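Protocol step 6 of 9: fold each sequence in the batch and record its structure tokens directly after the sequence line. For illustration, a two-sequence batch is reproduced in full.

Sequence one:
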Amino acid sequence: MADNERPLLRTVVGRVLRRHRLEQRRTLAEVAREANVSVQYLSEVERGRKEPSSEILAAVCDALQIELSDLLAEVRFDLVGHVAPVLRLAPVAPPAPGRSGGVMMLAA
């Protein structure tokens, strides 16, 4: 992936789910069984190949004993690491006739 490309949401969600599963030293089969999904499907979710529904995400989070809100917070954190934050400035009125231009702010 090029530096300026954003990762797909499903890829980051899968990465975070896998990270939790591995931190708990659990197998795909264990988590899939508890979440009532197939091992193959959970594997595809973790690899970012399938986009899980909110129901599936909730079931996998329950199986991993994590809150959905915590999963989403981690996903956001990972996404922010890939994209420079956008600084939005309020629009500035043009200078009055006869006055010089205003100040320009730049952010890196």
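Sequence two, same batch, same settings:
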Amino acid sequence: MTDGQPVTIIMIEDDEGHARLIEKNIRRAGVSNQIIPFTDGTSALSYLFGADGSGEDSARRQLLILLDLNLPDMTGVDILEKIKNNIHTKRSPVVVLTTTDDQREIQRCYDLGANVYITKPVDYDGFANAIRQLGLFFSVMQVPETA
């Protein structure tokens, strides 16, 4: 990691209950990294790509992106595509969190460069367990150096 800079977790999730649950379970797994929440794609993309839209703002950031696919203003697939097509953000790991288990959609996310795909179980325990696993994953993960 560049200069030992900590990874910032970008959470793009419009369901407040899910967002709280995700954060709680990440913290419970011992991950203390900053989490920046966004409830829609537009604000998340403007944070990631900056005022000029180039993405250069994120060139020096170590990011991990948690992405819900069902957002009020655009699809998570569109956001994933934009992140992975930008030279400054394409190496940022993206974890897709969604309620759909449609195999075509899952495959499309992997094709676009998603690193992990987690289906949000409708029951609380299943979801909490998936997020706990994610927390453990974060605690051992190293973000690749940016070029």
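Proceed to step 7 once all outputs are recorded. Observation for sequence two: The mean pLDDT is 85.
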